Sequence to fold (236 residues):
Amino acid sequence: MKKLAELYRGKAKTVYTTDNPDLLVLEFRNDTSAFDGQRIEQLDRKGMVNNKFNYFIMSQLRAAGIPTQVEKLLSDTEVLVKKLDMVPVECVVRNRAAGSLVRRLGVEEGYIFNSPTFELFLKNDALHDPMVNDYHCKAFGWATDEQLAKMKELSFKINTVLSELFAKAGLILVDFKLEFGLYKGEITLGDEFSPDNCRLWEKETLKKMDKDRFRQSLGGVIEAYEEVAKRIGVPL
Ligand code: ADP
Ligand code: UDP
Fold:
C-alpha cells in the first residue's frame, strides 16, 4: 500500500488517498480544537494516543460484530481505513447529562437518564453543528430511513459494548459522538472513537478524563487520555 495525495485536512486529522481506491490513510495530528474550531492548540503525544486508542476501540467493536472502517495500524499516528461515503450527520448517544444537553434542557450535569438518548447533529462548523432529526436527514438526502435505523441500532449496540468495557476499568461512559458512512452499500463506523469525542468520568471521583479537560482548561489533558488507555489495555 502506498500513501498518495492529501485529500482533506480536518481539525484533528489529515486524510490521504492510497494506491487502492477503496482505502484511505487517516493521520492523527496533535491539533486539539474546541468551540467549532475557534480554539486550537497543539498537545504533545495526542496524535499517537488517539490513533492507538481508536484502533483498539474499533478492533473491539469489530469483534463485537460492528462493521468498522479499520484495516491496519500503520504507524504511531496513521491508520489504514476503508474509504467511506460519509453521512454528514453526527450521532450522539448519552447515558448521563453533560455538555450541550445541560445547556439546552436545563438539567444538572450528571443527571442519569432512564434510558440512553440518541441525537443527530449536522456536521457544519459555520452553523455550529445544528441539531437535526430523521425528517431533515430524509428531506435533504443525507440518509435514508433504512440507513438511519441502522445507524441508531449500531449506536446503541456500541453504547452497550463500550459502557461495559469502560465500567470494567472504573470509568463511566457519559456520552459519545459517532460518524458513519457507506462502504459498498453497508453502513460502517468511520472517523474515530477517542477521548476527544466522548465523555468519560472516573467512577469513584467523577473526575473528567476526556476532552472536557481541554474545553474547561482543567490541565492534564493527555495524561488523562493516557490513564484511560492504560486502564482499558491500549498498548501505547
Ligand atoms: P473535522 O472534519 O470535523 O475537522 P477531522 O479532523 O477528524 O474532523 O477530519 C477527518 C475527516 O475525515 C472528517 O471530515 C471525517 O468525516 C472524514 N472521515 C473519517 N473517516 C473516514 C473514512 N473512513 N472515509 C472517508 N472519510 C472519513
Ligand atoms: N462531540 C464531538 N464533536 C462535536 C460535538 C460533540 O465529538 O462536534 C462529542 C462530545 O465530545 C461529547 C458528545 O459528542 O462526548 C456530546 O457533545 P455535546 O452535544 O454535549 O456538545 P459539547 O458540549 O461537547 O459542545
